[in-house]
Amino acid sequence: MESTLKALRDGESVLDLSPRSTVSGGVEDVYGEDHATEDQLVTPWNFSVASGYSLLRDPQYNKGLAFTEKERDAHYLRGLLPPTITSQQLQEKQLINNIRQYQVPLQKYQAMMELQETNERLFYKLLIDHVEELLPIVYTPVVGEACQKYGSIFKRPQGLFISLKEKGKVLEVLKNWPERSIQVIVVTDGERILGLGDLGCQGMGIPVGKLALYTALGGVRPSACLPITIDVGTNNEKLLNDEFYIGLRQKRATGQEYSELLQEFMTAVKQNYGEKVLIQFEDFANHNAFELLAKYGTTHLVFNDDIQGTASVVLAGVVAALKLIGGNLADHTFLFLGAGEAGTGIAELIALEMSKQTKTPIEETRKKIWLVDSKGLIVGSRKASLQHFKQPWAHEHEPVGSLLEAVKVIKPTVLIGSSGVGKTFTKEVIEAVTSINEKPLVLALSNPTSQSECTAEEAYEWSEGRAIFASGSPFDPVEYKGKVYYSGQANNAYIFPGFGLGLVISGAIRVHDDMLLAASEALAKLVTEENYEKGLIYPPFSNIRKISANIAASVAAKAYELGLATRLPRPQNLVKYAESCMYTPVYRNYR
């Protein structure tokens, strides 16, 4: 991946520490939240000590009916609450029961967002304790529908909206956000939301959802997270004609106007929050995603989850699957449907890991990987007309027009879908790949569920129960000929929360490909024999905070090894250190 991006940077590497950047800034735990034990008292600071009605309206400190008698006296809450005092556990039990009553997934999403905006700690406690049940609600697939209807369900701001109207004033806009100690920013321009296309300003649901997972799964403090949407317009005619659309009503800005706004944004972020703030690009269109990563990868701490996060989680699944399908990574042939930022990012990281294992040049290992786009198999004769990120995959071969034909001639052992187009792994395709392999590895990665290349049921039935299957969105277990099959979820949420935590705890100033490989290897090692017996190639989400701590430790270790970490001295036990830094959402006692 770095080799591809270096070509766009005129050979500059993230390890060169560009003179265009300066090492400065950084985030400290100003109020001592990270260092206080659960038993220690903390002060509920706002701009002054929060009390009375304002305390109940402050999601960071509100505990609802869990305020003690002493706290009710000290903070002027008498009469503002019913007399009963409940525990956080009872509140959690009541809320999960209420959420389960809703039949419509979007109603569950709205209930969770309402909770986040009124009682932050209870929201994260609920999400952590019921992560497998609630993850599909606060993130994919339900967040896709939420983004489509964001204008209709919008109530209050959950992040910053930076539009072309703010050009020249972006630094002032950043200073309007009430929190000063920001460690992670997730930013989108809404042009390619999941597999749903251009949703403009309504893509804000993605940064909000991602950062909720940074906290719940990775333990980054909520107050250190900032969701941002950059609104440069939309080309979605339906939204432009929707009276409830909340964004700029104009066609997307491109070229110099777009670049200047992004440049101002990136400069303002570093100026306001320092060198060590992580900027995660999310759901940018292909042409901008690669360019932004190449442009700012040597000057800022940037990470693109669609390119790098997806690649890392898929590589982890492939490495883990080797125990089920046999052989080493270099023994397998890979065929992708989809050659956008996700597909090429995954392909590049697999080639990089293969190169590392075999000590073979990456130009050679790429030849084990083939990609199919909307025009057919990517081959040498098409190279002149290909976008730059597709060109490394243009191998010498006769033109092939369809995925089915490509399966028959390439004979892949691993079939990966990242096309964003549903139902493209047809019965004929699955049967063809099964005829070549005893245990084909089939990864249908596109989100949301409606865009998945095939369902778990289809994969198992058409392969006669022989496929090892994982998908981007969750599927229920499938019973086929008396046997129950469990499919894994190749969800980026396995990687990016722990990856980000590792960057934060090490004080890293750049992201390097070796960190992505370290994260993949750490995740693959956490798959147990019990998981393998069920056909799973990912560990259960119920252990996600432990998984994130291990990934964070591996990423931090690599940052120290590469000389990119600034938090010194290096902790001796990075796993324990990562766990000690993780936010815990239990209620605190107030003075």
Automatic annotation (TrEMBL):
Any Pfam family matching the protein: malic
Location of the active site: Y139, K210
Cofactor binding, note field: Divalent metal cations. Prefers magnesium or manganese.
CDD domains: NAD_bind_1_malic_enz (cd05312)
Residues binding (S)-malate, per UniProt: R192, N447, N491
Cofactors required: Mn(2+); Mg(2+)
Stored SUPFAM superfamilies: Aminoacid dehydrogenase-like, N-terminal domain, NAD(P)-binding Rossmann-fold domains
Keyword terms of this UniProt record: Metal-binding, NADP, Oxidoreductase
Binding positions for a divalent metal cation per the UniProt entry: E282, D283, D306
Substrates-to-products reaction catalysed: (S)-malate + NADP(+) = pyruvate + CO2 + NADPH; oxaloacetate + H(+) = pyruvate + CO2
Domain called Malic enzyme N-terminal: residue spans: 116-297
Annotated GO MF terms: malate dehydrogenase (decarboxylating) (NADP+) activity; metal ion binding; NAD binding
GO annotation (BP), single: malate metabolic process
Residue span(s) of domain Malic enzyme NAD-binding: 307-560
Cellular component per GO, a single term: chloroplast
Protein family membership: Belongs to the malic enzymes family.
Name of this chain's protein: Malic enzyme
